[in-house]
Amino acid sequence: EIPGEYYLYINGGTISIDAYGDGIDSNGYVVMTGGTVTIDGSTSSRDGALDHNGTFEMIGGIIIGTHIDGMTSEGINAGSQASIFTTIGGRVAGGTVIHIETADGEGLVTYETRNDFSVIVFSSPDLVAGESYSIYLDGTAEGESVYGLYEDDAYTPGTLLGTVTAA
What is the pLDDT of residues 101-114, one digit of tens each? Predict the structure, then answer.
Protein backbone atom coordinates (compact mmCIF):
# COMPACT_ATOMS: atom_id res chain seq x y z
CA GLU A 1 0.00 0.00 0.00
CA ILE A 2 1.15 3.50 -0.78
CA PRO A 3 0.39 5.88 2.13
CA GLY A 4 -0.39 8.77 -0.23
CA GLU A 5 -3.42 6.95 -1.59
CA TYR A 6 -5.33 7.08 1.70
CA TYR A 7 -5.89 9.65 4.43
CA LEU A 8 -8.11 10.40 7.39
CA TYR A 9 -8.95 14.04 8.08
CA ILE A 10 -10.45 15.15 11.42
CA ASN A 11 -11.42 18.82 11.57
CA GLY A 12 -13.87 19.16 14.45
CA GLY A 13 -16.50 17.52 16.59
CA THR A 14 -16.13 14.96 19.35
CA ILE A 15 -15.09 11.39 18.63
CA SER A 16 -14.94 8.68 21.30
CA ILE A 17 -13.44 5.31 20.40
CA ASP A 18 -13.62 2.17 22.55
CA ALA A 19 -11.64 -0.14 20.30
CA TYR A 20 -11.48 -3.90 19.99
CA GLY A 21 -8.72 -3.41 17.41
CA ASP A 22 -6.77 -0.30 16.48
CA GLY A 23 -8.36 2.95 17.62
CA ILE A 24 -7.62 5.19 14.65
CA ASP A 25 -6.38 3.06 11.76
CA SER A 26 -5.33 4.62 8.46
CA ASN A 27 -3.48 2.88 5.66
CA GLY A 28 -2.20 6.34 4.78
CA TYR A 29 -1.93 9.70 6.48
CA VAL A 30 -3.92 11.21 9.36
CA VAL A 31 -4.41 14.97 9.67
CA MET A 32 -6.19 16.52 12.67
CA THR A 33 -6.96 20.24 12.67
CA GLY A 34 -9.60 20.47 15.39
CA GLY A 35 -12.06 18.67 17.61
CA THR A 36 -11.66 16.27 20.51
CA VAL A 37 -10.80 12.58 20.21
CA THR A 38 -10.64 10.04 23.06
CA ILE A 39 -9.36 6.54 22.36
CA ASP A 40 -9.43 3.53 24.64
CA GLY A 41 -7.40 1.07 22.64
CA SER A 42 -7.69 -2.67 22.63
CA THR A 43 -6.21 -4.67 25.47
CA SER A 44 -4.45 -6.80 22.85
CA SER A 45 -0.78 -6.01 22.34
CA ARG A 46 -1.32 -6.35 18.58
CA ASP A 47 -3.42 -3.17 18.37
CA GLY A 48 -2.72 0.47 19.16
CA ALA A 49 -4.65 3.64 19.85
CA LEU A 50 -3.08 5.08 16.68
CA ASP A 51 -2.06 3.01 13.68
CA HIS A 52 -1.06 4.79 10.48
CA ASN A 53 1.18 3.96 7.55
CA GLY A 54 1.91 7.62 6.74
CA THR A 55 2.39 10.49 9.16
CA PHE A 56 -0.05 11.61 11.85
CA GLU A 57 -0.06 15.38 11.47
CA MET A 58 -1.48 17.25 14.47
CA ILE A 59 -2.37 20.87 13.72
CA GLY A 60 -5.20 21.51 16.19
CA GLY A 61 -7.60 19.88 18.61
CA ILE A 62 -7.18 17.54 21.56
CA ILE A 63 -6.49 13.83 21.44
CA ILE A 64 -5.88 11.42 24.30
CA GLY A 65 -5.48 7.73 23.74
CA THR A 66 -4.34 4.62 25.56
CA HIS A 67 -3.43 1.08 24.56
CA ILE A 68 -1.37 -1.92 25.65
CA ASP A 69 2.33 -1.79 24.75
CA GLY A 70 3.42 -4.20 22.07
CA MET A 71 1.99 -2.46 19.02
CA THR A 72 4.73 -0.62 17.16
CA SER A 73 3.34 2.89 16.95
CA GLU A 74 4.92 6.21 16.19
CA GLY A 75 2.11 8.14 17.81
CA ILE A 76 1.78 11.67 16.50
CA ASN A 77 4.85 12.33 14.42
CA ALA A 78 4.21 15.49 12.42
CA GLY A 79 2.44 18.85 12.52
CA SER A 80 2.74 22.13 14.34
CA GLN A 81 1.22 20.91 17.62
CA ALA A 82 3.31 19.18 20.30
CA SER A 83 2.44 15.75 21.68
CA ILE A 84 3.33 13.24 24.39
CA PHE A 85 3.83 9.51 23.83
CA THR A 86 4.86 7.51 26.89
CA THR A 87 5.03 3.86 27.88
CA ILE A 88 4.32 2.81 31.45
CA GLY A 89 6.29 -0.07 32.97
CA GLY A 90 3.30 -2.34 33.44
CA ARG A 91 -0.40 -2.80 32.81
CA VAL A 92 -2.78 -0.28 34.41
CA ALA A 93 -6.43 -1.19 35.02
CA GLY A 94 -9.27 0.37 33.07
CA GLY A 95 -11.19 2.92 35.13
CA THR A 96 -7.95 4.63 36.13
CA VAL A 97 -7.90 8.42 35.94
CA ILE A 98 -5.03 9.99 33.96
CA HIS A 99 -4.16 13.60 34.73
CA ILE A 100 -1.52 15.60 32.86
CA GLU A 101 -0.37 19.01 34.06
CA THR A 102 2.28 21.65 33.44
CA ALA A 103 5.33 22.17 35.67
CA ASP A 104 3.33 25.00 37.29
CA GLY A 105 0.49 22.64 38.21
CA GLU A 106 -1.95 23.78 35.53
CA GLY A 107 -4.12 20.85 34.48
CA LEU A 108 -4.25 20.12 30.77
CA VAL A 109 -6.35 16.96 30.72
CA THR A 110 -8.13 14.67 33.15
CA TYR A 111 -9.37 11.45 31.59
CA GLU A 112 -10.90 8.26 32.99
CA THR A 113 -9.94 5.23 30.91
CA ARG A 114 -12.28 2.40 30.00
CA ASN A 115 -9.73 -0.31 29.15
CA ASP A 116 -6.46 -1.57 30.61
CA PHE A 117 -3.45 0.29 29.20
CA SER A 118 0.31 0.73 29.33
CA VAL A 119 0.77 3.52 26.76
CA ILE A 120 -0.53 7.10 26.80
CA VAL A 121 -0.61 9.43 23.79
CA PHE A 122 -1.78 13.05 24.22
CA SER A 123 -1.79 16.24 22.19
CA SER A 124 -3.30 19.63 22.91
CA PRO A 125 -2.75 23.19 21.68
CA ASP A 126 -1.56 23.92 25.25
CA LEU A 127 1.47 21.60 25.00
CA VAL A 128 4.83 23.20 24.20
CA ALA A 129 7.56 21.11 22.56
CA GLY A 130 10.58 20.73 24.84
CA GLU A 131 8.63 21.47 28.04
CA SER A 132 8.12 18.88 30.80
CA TYR A 133 4.73 17.68 31.98
CA SER A 134 3.68 15.61 35.00
CA ILE A 135 1.48 12.56 34.58
CA TYR A 136 -0.63 11.37 37.52
CA LEU A 137 -2.63 8.16 37.82
CA ASP A 138 -5.67 7.62 40.00
CA GLY A 139 -6.67 10.49 42.25
CA THR A 140 -10.17 11.92 42.14
CA ALA A 141 -11.79 13.76 39.25
CA GLU A 142 -14.85 15.84 40.08
CA GLY A 143 -17.62 17.19 37.92
CA GLU A 144 -19.14 15.79 34.77
CA SER A 145 -17.23 13.88 32.15
CA VAL A 146 -17.95 13.50 28.47
CA TYR A 147 -16.67 10.15 27.19
CA GLY A 148 -14.33 10.01 30.20
CA LEU A 149 -12.92 13.50 29.62
CA TYR A 150 -13.49 15.85 32.54
CA GLU A 151 -14.28 19.36 31.38
CA ASP A 152 -13.78 21.45 34.51
CA ASP A 153 -10.52 19.76 35.50
CA ALA A 154 -11.27 19.64 39.26
CA TYR A 155 -8.74 16.99 40.23
CA THR A 156 -7.27 15.76 43.52
CA PRO A 157 -3.82 14.28 42.79
CA GLY A 158 -3.18 10.58 42.88
CA THR A 159 0.19 8.93 42.26
CA LEU A 160 2.80 10.79 40.23
CA LEU A 161 3.78 8.45 37.41
CA GLY A 162 6.60 10.73 36.30
CA THR A 163 7.40 13.58 33.97
CA VAL A 164 7.65 13.53 30.19
CA THR A 165 8.88 16.03 27.64
CA ALA A 166 6.57 17.02 24.81
CA ALA A 167 7.92 16.66 21.28
Answer: 999 999 999 999 99
Cα separation, 98 vs 121, in Å, equals 11
For CA atoms 136, 15, 60, 40, give the dihedral sign: positive
Cα–Cα distance measured from residue 37 to residue 81, given in angstroms and rounded to the nearest whole number: 15
Q: What one-character DSSP code corresponds to residue 104? A: T
Average pLDDT over residues 113-136: 94
Q: How many CA atoms lie within 13 A of 154 on its CB side?
A: 5
The DSSP 8-state label assigned to residue 78 in this structure reads B
Q: Classify 95 in phi/psi space as left (phi over 0), alpha (psi -120 to 50) or beta.
A: left
Query: Residue 102 corresponds to which amino acid?
Result: T
Q: State how beta strands 50-52 and 24-26 pair.
A: parallel
Amino acid type, 140 = T
Query: Cα–Cα distance between 42 and 30 in angstroms, integer?
Result: 20
CB contact at 8 A, 127 and 108: yes
Cα angle 110-147-114, degrees, rounded to a multiple of 5: 80
